[in-house]
Amino acid sequence: MTHHKIYKDRATFDRSRLADELRRIADELDAGGVVTYGTDGNAGFIALPEEVDGKLEIERSKNEDEIRLSAELRFPAGTTEN
Fold first, then answer.
1. What is the pLDDT of residues 8-64, one digit of tens each?
2. What is the spatial distance between Cα 10 and Cα 17, in angstroms, rounded to a whole number?
3. Residue 56: which of 72, 42, 68 has the closest Cα?
4. What is the 3-state secondary structure of 15-71?
5. pTM score of the predicted model
6. Is the distance from CB of 59 to CB of 44 less than 8 angstroms?
7. Distance CA 69, CA 82 (A)
8. Phi, psi dihedral angles at 78 (to 5 degrees)
9. DSSP code of 1?
10. Domain segments of the chain as ranges
11. Phi and psi angles of residue 25, each rounded to the nearest 5 degrees, phi first
């Protein structure tokens, strides 16, 4: 299945800023399920349904110098997005 990337951002966070960003997303989910992303010309939102399929992975690199924590959520594409 081919995917079309809607948005991607990469940044370096200190723990406090990371916690703030995760809290913002959690607050938006609690407030109705509409999650905002981006800024200015690339800003948008996506509305999540009541139930989503989720996956949490924690991996160590082969040379053991890096750990990766990733969360993935999947839900039907009929969800509102902008």
1. 889 999 999 999 999 999 999 999 999 999 988 889 999 999 999 999 999 999 999
2. 14
3. 72
4. HHHHHHHHHHHHHHHHCCCEEEECCHHHCEEEECCCCCEEEEEEEECCCCCCEEEEE
5. 0.81
6. no
7. 27
8. -70, 0
9. -
10. 15-74
11. -65, -45
